[in-house]
Amino acid sequence: MKKALALVMAGAMALSMVACGGSTSTSTATSGSTAASTGTSTASGAATEITLWTYPIGSWQKEETVNGFIAEFNKQYPDIKVNVEYLDYTNGDDKVTTAIEAKNTPDIIFEGPERLVSNWGAKGLMVDLSDLWTEEATADISKTSEAVVNACKGADGKYYEYPMCMTAHNMAINYELFEETGALQYIDQETRTWTTDNFVKALETLRDSGKVMTPAIVYCGGQGGDQGTRALVNNLYSGTYTTADHTAYTANSAENVKALELLQKLNSEKALTFDPAMQASDELQMFANGTAAMTFCWNASNEATYAEQVTFTPYAMNFPTDDGKVELCGGIWGFGIFNNGDEAKIEAAKTFIKFICDDATQGPASVQATGFFPVRASFGNVYAGTENEERMATFQTFLPNMGDYYNVTGGWTEQRTAWWNMLQEVGNGSDVQAAADKFVETSNAAIG
Known about the structure:
Elements: E1 28-31, E2 48-54, H1 63-76, E3 80-86, H2 92-101, E4 108-111, H3 113-121, H4 135-144, H5 146-151, E5 162-168, E6 170-174, H6 175-181, H7 196-209, E7 217-219, H8 226-236, H9 254-268, E8 273-275, H10 280-289, E9 294-298, H11 300-306, E10 314-317, E11 330-337, H12 343-358, H13 362-368, E12 373-374, H14 389-396, H15 412-427, H16 432-447
Parallel strand pairs: 2-3, 2-4, 7-8
Antiparallel strand pairs: 1-3, 4-11, 5-11, 5-12, 6-9, 6-10
Helix pairs in contact: 8-9, 12-13, 15-16
């Protein structure tokens, strides 16, 4: 087993930790063209100017990468000028909220259904993108995942997101440390799975070895990377996070309470640690440093991000489960358009989105820059022939384990805060059922 990941994306593939803490830097870039008009233009012949705001999704946080894509776009559409602002996951939502209140929202925003559909779309702020969802596009995306199609559609039947890429979030272990301590016997390396019982045994083995500061960290200092802690709790005893129709939260079910009680017990026995001061970005750094034996917030993008730091093999794993049926939290990213009432800008924004997502050459390049996988089945393996082909093939094996995309449930923003507050209470020794009931009461109240 290799001691380090030698194959790392260069340039556009130097990725950030999407949805796991994210970048903390912002900047603004502008790209346009002064070439003669050969693309979309306004009636007066002047350029149509639009603004894109993008969250740090892989290399979509890098000006060099995004400006390169805009330059390719302007070769075909020189009369559409695209200004860019880069958001982060620390204050990005606050910036969008402020823009909404000031009626100064961007034309295009790049993120996922939990924001574009169930938040801003449900509030009537977004443009219906149903015309982009042609019969061909819908069929192509459906071949990859019906969950993607459904997630991009609001309760009113309108599409508020046009998707580009997806992934299934997983966890990872320090392979050499597991091997050295004897904990490696508790995982199935062929399927990268393990049972709940073996997960516990591995934690106890790591603890008793004295070779690691902490076997695992349940980070609960904020919402960053909460897909990891949700997947951990739900998989341990086959619990669900919401009802199947996404109308209510169910984290206080008997299965989930049992899982939280197990984690609380392991915390008291020092087999893992609840840390109210840590978010996922902190836990990831502890893992990369070798201080923690595993991380609950892993994906292809994070592996690339930390490849130059680690001196061990980060071995991607499914979450432990009691019934052998793993259900991973998924990530879906694409574009939405805020309805600013300017039809010329809306049409220009749609033109940009179609080019970035669907163009036979640009589409795969756009996906590669995220470090994830295309929603369009027709794109095939976008990493074939690249230095990342083997590495990305491993993460592609997790996609079939993607579970219900419940992120579109109402009250999503409020429940994220309630979730980490609940984990803090559990970690402090509070009654688990009472804490879970409080979480569900708070989250369900926010749905309305």
